[in-house]
């Protein structure tokens, strides 16, 4: 493995340069340039079909990047540079890199045949090789952190949407990731349950976690986000301080979108 | 809201209802009683005639029902069923995964396997394996097109009737099981695999820990069917005299000509075994159904007793039926 030349502190957590992605002839991402600093919260906004979820999924290689360069913590996503060529990573190597990147999905995707606690300890025990007793102890702390200590023995079907999403966050945190990806984490929730999930995410941001969040929650992006990125039709239209981009945007397209959402 | 009650409840107003409660009179289904009586009469007549028919020879049935010969056959039928199902399910799962593989070669091979073993009659396959020695006199394992051989044996000594029966039933079952497993795997939401991958789980671990356990819920009921089918299909291997239950029964009636009584013996045993197979299936369904229903699990016995208890309290029967499901 080649050590990054820069100092670890100065390497951005996520760095995208001209990232492209297409499905057949449909171009979903048409050259994305983006930098997410360590410990910062980056919110991706935009109409559906703008490519924001696709870009998020590229970051942990659930989607393959077709062009440009995408690095996480200084390492290329999905490829290894060797002898002036990019070699596609093997499944084992891809899986290894994903360990450090937590992901939370719109539809929770909890494992329905496992209790909340079993969901949280699955990856630490099976992937990271943590002793079961130790993993259980850590899982209990994580569940307590998301306010669900008393739901450890419940199956996902016995939990509300908001509770399921908080278990999903605990599950992702159990691998001690250096980066958390959120793919519209509150879009499938009843309005009164959104607050609990956002509270947990806000807490996480306060603790210094680097986060990339695809969201329609303008309020959250404004309060918690360090950067707001507005995407449309596979390109970044506008990016910058959320209090600027989401309050007084420069671009007409951003303004039109915000007027519909707010 | 108007409170509804049955006559029995009003006879014992233990819960202190208001005086103007309305009484509900359930519909009387007279037609059902007539139909039930007619069906019972017909059934009793049929059973009576069977019981009194001297040609049925119940004495022969009794004589052979617990004969050693029958138990030997039963033993073969049981292990053949179990082994063929294990072979079928293991190979079937492999073929299902191959069929879902992005590799066109693996996909093609799996499709070819299913096409052949599902497309030819089982009876043909059984006879084929029984007589495979006529095709290849020796079985050799080595490197093709060279003289290097690791293993060599006479086909006849390897392919005993029992082995031929196991191969025929197991390979045929694998073709069907692969389609059931494939349907099960495809029934699992793709988000499950994505969530597992995002946690750093590799494809094989994801399949084993996340996808297959959820697929089991879809796989078990049809595989239960397949097991029951298999138990009965083992009777077909009597054509290569594999000494299963049916082979042994045939041997007896070939000598004493008591065909019907002997078939009754066989049928009683097949019925008994099929009935017993329902128990592990119910257990498996419960085990892999974990987390899918909000309601606490109620054992079949409890449900039965609960049902009895409910019918004694007719007043709340309708509402409990809704809640009890």
TrEMBL record, chain B:
The record's InterPro entries line, in alphabetical order, gives: AA_ABC_transptr_permease_3TM, ArtM/GltK/GlnP/TcyL/YhdX-like, MetI-like, MetI-like_sf
Q: Which GO terms describe its cellular component?
A: ATP-binding cassette (ABC) transporter complex
Q: State its location(s).
A: Cell membrane
Topology within the bilayer = Multi-pass membrane protein
* UniProt-recorded Gene Ontology molecular function terms: transmembrane transporter activity
Domain ABC transmembrane type-1, residue spans: 74-281
The protein depicted here goes by the name: ABC transporter permease
